[in-house]
Design goal:
Rossmann fold, 3 domains, 7-stranded parallel sheet, alpha/beta, about 500 residues, 6-stranded parallel sheet
Amino acid sequence: MSFETLGLAEPLLRAVAEYGYTVPTPIQMQAIPVVLSGSDLLGGAQTGTGKTAGFTLPMLHRLMEKPAVRDAKGKLPIRALILTPTRELAAQVEESVRTYGKYSKLTSMVMFGGVGMQPQIDKLRRGVDILVATPGRLLDHHQQRTLDLSHIEIFVLDEADRMLDMGFIHDIKKVLAIVPAQKQSLLFSATFSDEIKALADRLLNKPALIEVARRNQTADTIAQKVHPVGREMKKDLLAHLIKSNDWEQVLVFTRMKSGANKLVEFLEKQGISAMAIHGNKSQGARTKALAEFKTGDLTVLVATDIAARGIDIDMLPHVVNYELPNVPEDYVHRIGRTGRAGAQGEAISLVCPDENGFLRDIERLIKREIPKEIIDGFAPPVGEKAEPIVLGRMVIGEGAGRGGFRTSGGGGGGGRGRNDGRSAPSRSGGGGGYGGGAPARSGSGGGGQAPRAPARDGNAPQGARAAAPAARPSGPRPEPRRDGGVPFTPRSTGPKR
């Protein structure tokens, strides 16, 4: 099957052909006809499957078929809204809209926090057909009455699972209350949790269901491997793998921002060019690191999970889990950076005894055992036992005791801890709540705390301020919100498919 057989308009086919895309991916073959028909869609697709083109191409086609009606002042109304969880993803999706719509007369813009609002207001005043935005900044504009969403015909919620992970559910509900009830709605998610199903029930009307990969499964094009390693040997093993295999482009994941910075310092001392990308980096530094990594001028990009969301690099050959995620689903998202659109990729995980529990959870999720290979000279020392992993106020991992979770300081919460990096009640003591509540710091009790409000800039939720230490949430410090900075204009080797 070719793109010509899908019924897309000639200007779109011309733009697609210019980038050398001739055969649609499975998600595109299934999604494009559904969207063209005007039906709602629930799409289950992992990153790298071509889902962006799967909704942008038919969206552009439908908007081209029905010319916009300008308002009394001659301004174009916003007719399509695409909501994404992060700035990087928003910028890349809007780049795809411009790329595929280059021969149409449709206009688009991207909107996210961390940059000034006035340039965005100026663009809105001129009028745009398609708006790509992060939830917080979109609502900021709505509250200031600088945009009108009453003419939305097509609404896309992209990477809905990450939206919920980042705490944007309340903002999403606010957006749903603003946009018209009568519209075409498309929801895409790499995983289908109960929360995603509930959101889909609220948003979608008799949707077509498309799943191009088994739920929570990794792509067959990704060769996965685990290297068991001693706790203190990880840095040296990573440098050894990069040098001995002549890797030229490697995306490396760490759990914490501080860990990313330390790893970059070590690799630079080993003569390996490396930069970090995370929430504490300025927008300019993040843009520079991503641009140099895409062009091949930078060998190693070290990233945290949230900062890496939306990184789209054609033919990325290697992803390394320097530290395994404590949320199994994040493993699927991480390694999905490679093996995209049918290309071959390699995902390597460096696993010390502290992380064996995380590895078991991951293998249980993806329903397969990942091959293990010990590299000579880097095996875990005989007798090395698991030690607890400290994430902010939360202690996790094999060494954290039964269940793998507890909070430093003891006490609190009888419920089972959340394995999502938010907050985890202690396994001992009384009382306590489940689901984002802060555990008590001592003795008994441990009431739940209101969920953290999401940052208004497309990043992770901002931590709620506490009235007393006992009410402060445990877990890793959230990615902070930022104001100011420079506009995000990443260079790219091509549009997201």
